[in-house]
Design goal:
The chain is 18% helix and 24% strand. The chain contains 6 helices and 7 strands. The two termini are 19 Å apart. It is globular. A hairpin with a 5-residue loop joins strand 3 and strand 4. The N terminus is likely disordered. With 196 residues, it is of the alpha+beta class. A 5-stranded mixed beta sheet has the order 3-4-5-6-7.
Length: 196
């Protein structure tokens, strides 16, 4: 059976209606790329954003891979897993200075009628040394169907991008302290148990 599109890459109106099937065999390898080991925070080992992990070994990967923290076990790189070939044209993360997170972020906002709404956004972790890396035309093209992109530079330094009327609109934002996994679980429960 063919795999279904990743929920964060679906048009907005279809999010929340799909179960993702993991690919049986990855076609890509990390190689020397260890950008996720630098950009992402790891609370369990007190590693902050944008700092090299103490367990990272250049050209070798994680020194404690079999016993790596839970955050590392559940996290997936969009380029590496490449759901349905969406990221075929993207270079490896260390070459473009951003990493696409495959778990959608649940965000909350106010709609035109003043109602509180929740929506899913693709999270892109950018190296703060390259703050405009998220403007990569291939990345933006790949993420158009999702409609929302949360660009993270650190714990509170973010941009929300919304694809509307044929272009991406950038708005500085401040995400909540709630973890993505917790927020996603709550979102699924609110959707009547349907997993995005």
């Amino acid at each position: 059976t063919p795999t279904k599109p990743h929920p964060s890459l679906l048009p907005r109106e279809q999010m929340g209606e799909i179960i993702v099937e993991a690919p049986a065999q990855l076609k890509r390898r990390c190689g020397d790329c260890q950008l996720c080991c630098k950009l992402l925070p790891l609370k369990s080992i007190r590693k902050p954003h944008n700092t090299r992990c103490d367990h990272q070994r250049f050209g070798k990967g994680c020194n404690i891979y079999p016993g790596r923290p839970i955050e590392c076990r559940v996290w997936n790189c969009g380029w590496l897993t490449n759901p349905d070939g969406v990221f075929d044209k993207l270079p490896r993360p260390d070459r473009v200075h951003y990493v696409v997170d495959t778990t959608p972020e649940v965000l909350q906002g106010i709609d035109a009628l003043g109602r509180t709404v929740k929506f899913l956004a693709v999270t892109v972790w950018c190296d703060p040394k390259y703050p405009n890396s998220h403007r990569d035309p291939e990345l933006r093209k790949a993420l158009r169907p999702a409609g929302y992109m949360l660009v993270r530079y650190g714990p509170r330094d973010c941009l929300l991008l919304v694809y509307t009327e044929g272009r991406w609109v950038e708005t500085p934002t401040e995400p909540s302290e709630v973890s993505s996994a917790q927020a996603l679980a709550e979102f699924v429960a609110e959707q009547g148990g349907k997993r995005p």
